[in-house]
Design brief:
The chain is an alpha/beta fold. Helix content is about 45%, strand content about 15%. The protein has one domain: Rossmann fold (3-Layer(aba) Sandwich), CATH 3.40.50. A 4-stranded parallel beta sheet has the order 1-6-5-2, sandwiched between helices. Strands 3-4 form a two-stranded antiparallel sheet. The protein binds zinc ion.
Length: about 240
């Protein structure tokens, strides 16, 4: 039995009550925000730096497996270490704020050029089940849901799995990051994946090793095209 779930429901109900008593504030500048699902005020949101269209692909192409694995790669914003976006990412990943994810996914959709490529499905980069259980949700799945609502493309969470629990990438060198994640993913629905144009969704791209390993797995399973779209891109 899932003993964590009841606590989570109580915690989320409590947060809803807190939002009514104390209106939500911008995570970065602390001014009141009218929309509690977006954790930044409109001023801080507008100040986020857009990622250059080619920045992610140029960066990722340095990984030997990348050209065959990914057809395109984009990010909405440039990651600002110690800035507003890092505060948002931290809240989403470590402070149990799942509602931010869908709202951020909608912003990703607003920044997406739907004419760039025809998509059959959106595939969030999966977490290993231990990590997902600890966090209670996969932040990339929430982003994917926000994208899906707007782009009208279905989310498929059962096409890619992550059966291998990899170490955290944060303190690893570039080369070690690749060997850490290579082979971590499995395509579980090769019949569904074959011939499809997929949008692979991640939160933050740093070296891109995890995304390339996931994309390579989908390509090996027969995906016709894999396009990566991340919330933000951080140069390592
Ligand atoms: Zn603000």
């Amino acid at each position: 039995m899932d003993l964590v779930a009841p606590f989570r429901i109580v915690r989320q109900a409590w947060r809803g009550l807190v939002d009514v008593l104390y209106p939500p504030r911008c995570l970065h500048c602390n001014t009141r925000t009218p929309t509690p699902s977006i954790p930044l005020c409109s001023r801080c949101l507008q100040r986020l730096e857009q990622a250059a269209p080619d920045a992610v692909m140029d960066h990722i192409e340095r990984l030997p497996a990348a050209p065959a694995a990914l057809d395109r790669a984009r990010a909405l914003w440039r990651f600002d270490k110690d800035g507003a976006l890092q505060q948002v990412q931290h809240a989403l990943k470590y402070r149990n704020r799942p509602r931010y994810g869908v709202a951020l996914g909608r912003l990703m959709a607003a920044g997406w050029d739907a004419r760039a490529v025809a998509l059959d499905a959106i595939v969030p980069i999966p977490l290993h089940r231990t990590r997902r259980y600890e966090r209670g949700y996969n932040q990339s799945t929430l982003l994917a849901r926000g994208l899906s609502e707007t782009l009208d493309v279905p989310v498929r969470t059962d096409w890619l799995r992550r059966p291998i629990a990899t170490r955290s990438q944060a303190r690893l060198s570039r080369a070690a990051r690749w060997s850490n994640v290579e082979g971590a993913f499995r395509a579980t629905r090769a019949d569904a994946v074959a011939g499809r144009s997929l949008l692979l969704v991640d939160d933050i791209i740093t070296t891109g090793s995890t995304a390339v390993a996931a994309a390579a797995t989908l390509k090996k399973a027969g995906a016709a095209q894999v396009t990566l779209y991340a919330l933000a891109f951080a140069r390592d």
